[in-house]
Amino acid sequence: MARMNMIQALNSAMNIMLNRDPDVIIIGQDVGYFGGVFRATDGLQRQYGEHRVLDAPISEGGIVGSAIGMGVNGLRPVVEIQFADYIYPGYDQIISELARLRYRTAGDFFAPLTIRTPCGGGIRGGQTHSQSPEGIFTHVCGLKVAMPSNPYDAKGLLITAIEDDDPVIFFEPKRIYNGPFDGDPNKPAVPWSAHPKGEVPEGYYTVPLGRAEVVREGSEATILCYGTMVHVCEAAAAAADIDAEIIDIRSMVPLDVDTIRTSVEKTGRCVIAHEATRYSGFGAELAATVQEECFYSLEAPIQRVTGWDTPYPHAFEWDYFPGQARLIAALETVMEAA
Amino acid sequence: MTRQPRLHIPHPPARPGEDPDFSYLETFSAGSVPRPDPSVRLRDIERSLAFEMVRVLDDEHQAVGPWNPMLDADDLQVGLRHMLTNRIFDDRMQRMQRQGNISFYMKARGEEAVSVAQCMALKPSDMLFPSYRNQGLQIARGRNLVDLMCQCLSNSADMCKGRQMPIMYHWARGNIFSVSGNLTTQYPQAVGWAMAAAIKGEDDIAAAWIGEGSSAEADFHHAMTFAAVYLPPVILNIVNNQWAISTFQGFAGGERRPFSARGPGYGIPGVRVDGNDFLAVYAVTRWAAERARMGTGPTLIELVTYRADAHSSSDDPSRYRPKDEWQAWPLGDPIERTRAHMIREGIWSDAQHQALVEELTSYVDDCWEEALTYGTMTDGPQLDRNELFEDVFKDMPRHLIEQREQLRALEDD
Q1: What gap in Å lies between CA B337 and CA B58, rounded to an integer?
Q2: What is this structure's pTM?
Q3: Which chain B residues are Cβ-neighbours of A59 within 8 angstroms?
Q4: Pick among A105, A255, A289 to test the B interface (most B CBs inside 10 A)
Q5: CA B394 to chain centre
Q6: Which CATH architecture has domain B42-382?
Q7: Domains of chain A, each with CATH number or no CATH
Q8: A129 noted as active-site residue
Q9: Can you tell me the ipTM of this complex?
């Protein structure tokens, strides 16, 4: 076992896959010689060469479109979109082409892309470097969508995504690249080395898509969350002194409905938390699923704690960010009801 | 006196009821454009190839000049056969659409030389990324017409399992990619396919087609940029058939520069070719393929042609252009020009031509009868509707299994 932060874990996953599979290539802006603006591909071009780790023009549509062509021609491209906020020029290629290629050709063509992209706020990034657009990808049939919350899962899930023959949109919550974050920006930063999930095997292993993880067992309420919010929810539940069961969704498509159902049937109360905006967000899908699966176990209306339905404001990001105070209020609401 | 900026709104030279006017088209005489060695540097050819027009067949139907590909009689007869098959197939399918047998169709009349000559100039292992009017690629690669008809019928033998509108064919074994309804998306994909070929050290090349109208899409710029940066072995074709549904080529910027001239702007050779001249199209494509295979890089080809029929079975061009515009088109009909050339060369006759038309008409009829044995949208063998849940993912996830069960439950009621 080694101590890794999330960047090192992602780098290790890509290194292992470049080594194991000659068809794996990496393409994205600044990913080659420089090793990526977040350093996720640091050293990989030096190790595997310019034909396996390609610096790309500033052209998300061109990156995704050409990677689809490479995938059709037998390669297994790992695409980096530098910020999730920049993914939209590639959106037509992702939705109209990548997601539907297998379907429209009845399985004769497919492109096994993994699209990595840093998401989320709390880094003074304003509205163009803070978005969490997972919901507009989970809505598209034919895409798998994942977001890890720690280095161990990041590496294992990324290896799974790269090996998967379906396209995977892989969101990386950049606020926790270097350490877990409990939602309080005034506290000193905590490194991953002090966290059990910062222990990461150096070799090959996988974490499956479609499997959520119960990160804290509890009996009084279920919290469904993913990414940065996992750590905020843990802190909020502790601060509220509520024995909450916290589920890290990890994989939004496919979704682990069994783990969600088992938990909510046990607790009878459910809070859903994500950093993305609320309206039509992925939390709405989770709430609908809980309602359909667990209606007769529910003792209180489901609560959603999310970013406000505004763009991410630069100067007010801590008013925007769904921090502990909003989570505690939601937990108290579900505990009080009925 | 002060002047205010005013928008320039492009107008086609003629509207319904007016006389066709193609005076905007500078045609150049056959044989007038030099043929550089394929290894030529861009700066040595920038002007001539992008701004003039490569033509081989002159007004007397004689093959002249440095681009004459010297095709033998067999090749010409094969080319003519494919183009005629394309046209007769289109006529038949359009009739079937009018009779309600298929929901939609798109003909390629007047543009058959583009797909057929270009396909013949490439290797069978080269990967083709067609647009929606490139059925000639399928035909020239030897596809059974029954397969194409079954796709249009969405019947039990439909390669797309009923998931795509008519004409959205694909052929994995024949190295022809899937037609997309979203335009120009195949351009960066072809570039990426060619990048992968170069990464893997394989010598197959990619070719992609778009219309002049959809050269306005961002994917055109994405593809040209990537092609210029990495120099992959790819041929990017713009079929300028003058009309994008109701907007003429001026609405894609054609009034300013030929579409081929966009190539040099990116550092990619652009070649403008008479798209109705089978020999010129073949020669230019061979030249571009040679460049790609020798590692010199991509080529942009503008094929100047005319969309003789409606955009699709849902379109009515009499609402926006003169009815007889095609008759006035200066570059003529590719099939008629090829036939006239072959007759002039003494390798073809009107009697042979008539016999071929009859043979192909009856062949297409037979294919249609065979296609119907696999079912229509309403009768005969049918696709299993439960298969509509397959191929969204490689393995069906739980939520789709549940939705399939819901559909099955309705069936059982």
Answers
A1: 10
A2: 0.97
A3: 221-222, 225-226
A4: A105
A5: 31
A6: 3-Layer(aba) Sandwich (3.40)
A7: 2-200 (3.40.50.970), 213-336 (3.40.50.920)
A8: yes
A9: 0.97
